[in-house]
Structures are given as structure tokens and as C-alpha cells.
């Protein structure tokens, strides 16, 4: 499975910081890449950068959710993180990290697990 991660708001370096953070996790080392995101027909703006994370079904989604939430909690940032996988997405920021874990895990759960 793959997940796409966008970081909006915050500083210009936040996406690279998330990239480095995830690459420091044993489960994701070498599985995190930077790509250009696709802008929908109804959206304005230029191409955005997006992280892609390859992970296996099972516990890796939980680890990814925990890692992203921990990263956000360690920052003094206004950044919002959007996680998308298999057509599902969730967006959260520092004010919602306390109750977003189940939602992120649900987004990262394989449709085969449903």
C-alpha cells in the first residue's frame, strides 16, 4: 500500500522535515519519497509536493499514524498534515492530535481489512 502525505501551513521546510523523520523510522527507511502532487480540476494553485510512503498492511499503518502525530507534537508549527490512501483522507493539526489517531489508522487500513 501507499500513502500520500501533504503538509500545508507551517514553514517551507516542514515537508522535508517529515520526510527525514519518517526515514529515521526502521519501518519506513528507504520507503519514503518526494513527488509532485496532482492538482484537481476544481482546485487553484500550482503543483504541490507530496510525500509517498510505501508500507505493508497490518501494523505499519499504526506506526505511520503514531509517527506523524509525534512529529507534529514536537513542532511549534501551524502546519496541517493530510494523509490519503486508497481514496480516503484525513487532515489534522497540532490542536487535533489528541483524538485523530483512530481516523488516521482508518485511512491507512487496507480496503481488504474492512
Give a written overview of the molecule.
The model has no long low-confidence stretch (mean pLDDT 83). The relative contact order is 0.23. The chain has one domain (2-113): Alpha-Beta Plaits (2-Layer Sandwich), CATH 3.30.70. It has a 5-stranded antiparallel beta sheet, with helices on one face. With 114 residues, it is α+β, with helices and mostly antiparallel strands. The chain starts with a strand and ends in a 6-residue tail after the last helix. The radius of gyration is 13 Å and the shape is globular. It has 3 helices and 5 strands, in the order E-H-E-E-H-E-E-H.
Strand and helix layout:
Blueprint: E1 2-8, H1 14-23, E2 32-36, E3 49-54, H2 60-73, E4 80-85, E5 88-93, H3 101-108
Antiparallel strand pairs: 1-3, 1-4, 2-3, 4-5
Keywords:
114 residues, alpha+beta, Alpha-Beta Plaits, five-stranded antiparallel sheet, globular
Gross CATH architecture: 2-Layer Sandwich
User: What is the helical fraction, as a range of percent?
Assistant: 25-40%
Distance between the termini: 14 Å
Quaternary structure type: single chain
CATH fold call:
Alpha-Beta Plaits
Uncertain ranges? none
Give me the side-by-side strand order of the main sheet: 2-3-1-4-5
Output mean pLDDT. 83
Given helix and strand content, the structural type is alpha+beta
Q: How is this structure best summarized?
A:
With 114 residues, this protein is α+β, with helices and mostly antiparallel strands.
Amino acid at each position: 500500500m501507499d500513502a500520500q502525505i501533504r503538509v500545508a501551513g507551517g514553514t517551507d521546510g516542514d515537508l522535508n522535515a517529515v520526510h527525514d523523520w519518517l526515514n529515521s523510522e526502521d519501518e519506513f527507511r528507504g520507503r519514503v519519497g518526494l513527488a509532485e502532487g496532482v492538482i484537481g480540476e476544481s482546485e487553484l494553485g500550482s503543483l504541490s509536493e507530496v510525500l509517498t510512503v510505501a508500507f505493508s498492511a497490518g501494523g505499519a499503518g499504526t506506526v505511520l499514524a503514531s509517527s506523524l502525530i509525534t512529529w507534529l507534537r514536537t513542532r511549534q508549527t501551524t502546519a496541517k498534515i493530510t494523509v490519503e490512501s486508497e481514496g480516503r483522507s484525513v487532515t489534522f493539526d497540532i490542536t487535533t492530535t489528541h483524538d485523530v489517531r483512530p481516523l488516521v489508522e482508518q485511512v491507512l487500513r487496507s480496503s481488504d481489512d474492512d
